[in-house]
Amino acid sequence: MFQTAYAIARQFTWPVVLSRRTVEGVCSSNIGAFVVVNDQGWFVTAFHIVDFFSRLDSGALAARNHESKEQAIRMDQSLDHKARQKALKALGKLDKNATDQCSAWWGRDGVIAQDLHAIPAADIAIGRLEPFDPNWVQTYPTFKDPTKNFEPGNSLCKLGYPFHHIVPIWDVANSRFNLPAGAIPMPLFPIEGILTRFAEIKQLAGGPPPPFPLRLVETSTPGLKGQSGGPTFDTQGTIWAIQVNTAHLPLGFSPDVPGSTKGEKEHQFLNVGRGVHTITIFGLFNQYGVKYNVSTY
Known about the structure:
Elements: H1 3-12, E1 13-22, E2 27-36, E3 42-46, H2 47-75, H3 81-91, E4 99-105, E5 112-119, E6 124-130, E7 142-143, E8 155-160, E9 169-171, E10 176-178, E11 189-200, E12 215-219, E13 231-233, E14 239-250, E15 269-277, H4 278-287, E16 293-294
Parallel strand pairs: 7-16
Antiparallel strand pairs: 1-2, 1-4, 2-3, 3-6, 5-6, 8-11, 8-13, 9-10, 11-12, 12-15, 13-14, 14-15
Helix pairs in contact: 2-3
């Protein structure tokens, strides 16, 4: 059902890899997705992806500041040994699990994300890739017109990069992360479902609400880790939402845990995906002059 749509969507669905190295030297990464919107390099993704990287970057900056202060104390010739040790003790040591280095890999080497804008309450963000070559994308996306037949029951598909794990390598000589052999290209993974319901988001503290609805699209299957920021599209490859989170709906069933002798119960849930509705995405695009394609249906 989604074979043709998948072939279209994979052209504009790209991975983002957030690499991190701790003070102790342990490297890890988080993988998400984003959609390249137009030939100017604008993209849309989940806000929590760019927010997570911002927090990693702040942590790395704090580590640099701590190291600079420690170096200054050690180099201060006005301090005797006792005073130096006292100052170092007052400064404290960095937590071994604190972020020491981090980077964001936006689908290609040497590309950065800039001009970032977001609606945190809706978990949606946009930005622009720099540098960007329009020929990198063969087909740019079309977004579903929210005023036409945007109803529950439509078959939809989510796309992203779950079930793929990358342990980046910190290159000391060049002060950068390298992705290990075989890490890319990353395998895409689609999961189908139907549109079930909508949810309205209340604007949180931090300013007046935007002049457009903050709305989510719910689908009958979960969004998988690695699909955050990726598209939710129909059988024609048209985007209806950007996947941002998964909700766990209690079913009200509590059967006994198999093999349990203490009356333990299992709590049953239905995991449903939630993505940002195009009515909200269009509002954000229009606010910052981002051009986009709209479906005729």
